[in-house]
Write a structure and sequence with these properties.
8-stranded mixed sheet; 10-stranded mixed sheet; about 35% helix; globular; 15 helices; FAD/NAD(P)-binding domain; alpha+beta
Length: about 500
């Protein structure tokens, strides 16, 4: 028997995005009723799960794709600065909630230096140029650069042991980097939401939704554990934050702003080493450069991971391809997502990214030995028997209409909101989790413009430097970054 349920806000998905928005809205409007639906039996089991992502606190300290070499031989720091500013916003939000006792403890974040490592003369010259460009900025002033193998070995000994001494290497190093368990953070956020009266329902999947004449939304929700408890939900505002599951629901919503969007799913594999003796000798997230034709998300990296208090090593990713949009989804997802309004943009984006197709085919044919060989480019003496191959979460890259090209493949995240502010959807991938707080602040500003001024004082309490660019205000940057580091128990 279908039951009816009325609420102010529906959050679809139990990952870090929905959890962040839920906590933010509860801080701004404590009396609002919030209902969160998660199709699985627990929080953060898809993309937010610790083993379904690399856990990098994305702040552009080590990710080379955020500061590529320009055609004129210079490196523009603008994108890297924007990513770092956003991560600082997330840090402020988290630290405020820790101070106020709304996050039980900052166990979700650990200090792990971030490092870029490249090989060969040309790449070394690029890295030096990148260092000169970024280190001149306040947010990157502590970054170090070296072409000295002994110094690099101090930073990350496993990367240099057994390496040919004649090989040209270079590295950028930032001690203030972090490793973040977004699944743990999502769990703590969700516990807090429940304590504040939010209705969190597991095993519930939103099947369909439509907007009513009064502007509210009706959602048909299936109880995957008990079909007799299916729901018809009426909500004033809906957020589609279900990772790869957001696109199908956006399409079902029928909003004009969602027309022309498609998605291309990419799965990933990592090699994981849980041997304590080996893991204890590496404390860094070491990022390299993506192969020619490979997407930014494929950048190889050798990472320290802290999960449930235990340190492990992770190397990858090795790209794969499945047609499901969620790790625990249907192989029909991609085919069902093709609609008359997005088939042309998807086709055009595909034609313009044949290099990606070639890259995926190459990855799919890699043997285990080929994967170990790739690992040994960054860890020459790696013992293959110590590494297990694990499957990471699904990522759905955004494909959208483009006036000039017809369609483009867009990396990163895309926030889509209806003109009346009654519904929003988040599509895309990295660096989404690290920038969840500024994304959600942008969402509430776009969807609730008539309330935003009244909310601003509380927002300033939650994010003290909101509205400021820390890079442009050195004294404020020092104050804010030192404070958040102290509260979260990480290096500044």
């Amino acid at each position: 028997m279908t039951q009816t349920h009325t609420t102010d806000v529906v959050l679809v998905g139990g990952g870090i995005m929905s959890a962040t928005l839920g906590v933010l809205l509860k801080e701004l409007e404590p009396n609002w009723d919030i209902t969160l639906f998660e199709r699985l039996d627990r929080v953060g089991a898809e993309s937010s799960n610790a083993w379904n992502n690399a856990g990098t606190g994305h702040s552009a300290l080590c990710e080379l794709n955020y500061a590529p070499m320009g055609s004129d031989g210079t490196v523009n720091p603008a994108k890297a600065l924007n990513i770092n500013e956003q991560f600082q916003t997330s840090r402020q939000f988290w630290s405020t909630l820790v101070e106020e006792g709304k996050i039980a403890n900052p166990s979700f974040i650990n200090s792990v230096p971030h490092m870029s490592l490249v090989f060969g003369k040309d790449h070394s010259e690029y890295l030096k140029t990148r260092y000169q460009s970024l280190s001149a900025q306040k947010l990157f002033e502590k970054m170090e650069f070296s072409q000295d193998p002994e110094k690099i070995a101090e930073w990350a000994p496993l990367t240099m042991e057994g390496r040919d001494p004649k090989e040209t290497v270079a590295a950028n190093y930032s001690r203030e980097g972090t490793d973040v368990n977004f699944g743990n953070l999502a769990l703590q956020f969700t516990h807090h939401l429940e304590e504040q009266g939010a209705d969190v329902r597991f095993g519930h999947e939103v099947q369909d939704l439509r907007q009513e004449s009064d502007g509210s939304w009706s959602l048909r929700v299936t109880n995957r554990l008990n079909a007799e408890d299916d729901l018809l939900v009426r909500a004033k505002f809906v957020f589609l934050g279900a990772g790869g599951g957001a696109l199908p629901l956006l399409q079902k919503s029928g909003i004009p702003e969602g027309k022309g969007f498609g998605g291309f799913p990419v799965s990933g594999l990592f090699l994981r080493n849980s041997h304590e003796e080996t893991a204890s000798r590496h404390n860094a997230k070491v990022y390299g450069q993506a192969s020619v034709g490979a997407p930014p998300m494929s950048v190889p990296h050798l990472d320290t991971r802290w999960v449930d208090g235990k340190r492990s090593l992770l190397f990858g990713p090795y790209a794969g391809f499945k047609t499901n949009f969620l790790k625990q989804g249907s192989l029909l997802d991609l085919f069902k997502s093709v609609k008359p309004d997005n088939i042309y943009p998807m086709a055009r984006a595909g034609l313009d990214n044949l290099g990606l197709v070639k890259y995926l085919l190459t990855e799919l044919t890699k043997t285990r030995q080929a994967k170990i060989d790739a690992l040994r480019e960054y860890y020459p003496e790696a013992a293959g028997g110590e590494w297990d191959l694990i499957e990471a979460g699904q990522r759905v890259q955004v494909m959208r209409k483009d006036a000039k090209k017809g369609g483009v493949l867009q990396f990163g995240t895309e926030l889509i909101t209806k003109g009346d502010g009654s519904i929003a959807a988040l599509l895309g991938a990295s660096p989404g989790a690290s920038t969840a707080v500024p994304i959600m602040l942008n969402l509430v500003k776009k969807c609730f413009p008539d309330r935003f001024d009244a909310w601003s004082p509380r927002i300033k309490e939650l994010v003290p430097a909101y509205g400021h660019r820390l890079n442009d205000e050195p004294d404020l940057a020092d104050e804010i970054m030192a404070h958040t580091a102290k509260v979260l128990g990480i290096r500044n």
